[in-house]
Amino acid sequence: MPLLMVALGVILLIILITAFKLNAFISLIISSFVVALALGMPLGDIVTSVEAGLGGTLGHIALILGFGAMIGRLIADAGGAYRISMTLIDKFGRRNVQWAIAASSFIVGIALFWDVAFILLVPIIYMISKELKTSITHFGLTLAGALVVAHSFLPPHPGITAVTQEYGADLAMVLIYGIIIAIPTIVVAGVWFPKINKKWIPSAFEKTGNVEAIGDQKLWKLEETPGFGISVLTAVFPILLMFAAAFLDIFQKQLGFADNLLVVIIRFVGNAPVALLISLLLAMYTMGIARKTPIKDLTSSAGASINAIGLLILITGGGGAFKQVIIDGGVGEYIASLFTDVSISPVLLSWIIAVIFRICLGSGTVAALSTAGLVLPMLESYPEANLALVALATGAGTAFASHVNDPGFWMVKEFFGLSMKETFATYTILSSVASIVGIILVLLMDTSVILAGVTIAAILVAAVVIHTIEGAGSKKKQIKNISV
User: What is the pTM for the complete model shown?
Assistant: First the structure.
């Protein structure tokens, strides 16, 4: 019954948004109350749960969204995003831009939370799409796919890091295995899937993005824009700060050195809100003051970005409220009871449990920790289990089927300008593809490292071959058009 109540709550949410055209935030709050009542929560606890979910989500994400949007708008308004996009197109070639986006998004996504990296990179994706006259959905799904994989498979992201510690797995091995598995997964989910997905739901690939959220940008003359180096530095500066703090924690755990003043300072400035605030000040200087732009204009740009994403922040908080009533309503405990005395491979079992928690609870981190609580006692019966692969299987499960109780679902929908149906048919399926490819590779690695290596090599070789064939086809088409 708890799972049925959650399913009915999701259906109600979809009906409110699509049939009654209610605002997504209002629909999420209504659905949260209905699901809480259906789950039998005491009336006095429902409002507290909704407030806790909304406040807990916004407490983590509001500053990130706000500062990130300001930085993105300042870089875009100064022409920095245009300079970055034009340089990428020039260096990689128009045919290889998707691969450049996949690689850069994965690198950025290693150090940053999904939402932080998404907010920082969306303006650049928007400018590339606009310049190449390509739907933002095509390149945006590549961005989202690479970030989903990095967030699910690689420390120092909280979910995979937490289960690694809970299982007692070696963090370095999880990182190494994770990178090996992540690369072919990104090729399949981030590069191939958008091309296939375009045939399923072409309407989603006709979108130009939510201009109000991203910020419409004029076409610049390249000489009027900031330099490529300073534009990239401004865009990735928060990434560098957070990257330094993340790897400091990894090295400290491996080497065991004590905290000192330098460690405390690096960890402080590497905290996401602090790093973004420092980077916002840097952006105001490099994209404004250094270019003789009046402070009034900089403030206006920053304010406009906040006005544009105000509703998005509320919608994201509504997703957190929906998630919290599901958790407080005892759905997690019910799922735990389903797996009592179950005997199965710990690698596969951890993925299955994580998938169920992910679908029901929304938060990948919560799903990972909940899974660890169930799987950990079972590991005593499997002393030969590869704990690093069990951790990665759990991480793969937390990527599955992002939908209405995941704030990332709403960010993709709003920034790309998609409908509910289009977001389900694109991002929800993409995250599921990443999860399935990931667990297949983990199972192959658990069975035979050689077999897994051959499979990964085959995926990468196929990627090169397909890319070469596509390039040859593109050249033939150009030659045909010229001859005509």
Answer: 0.73
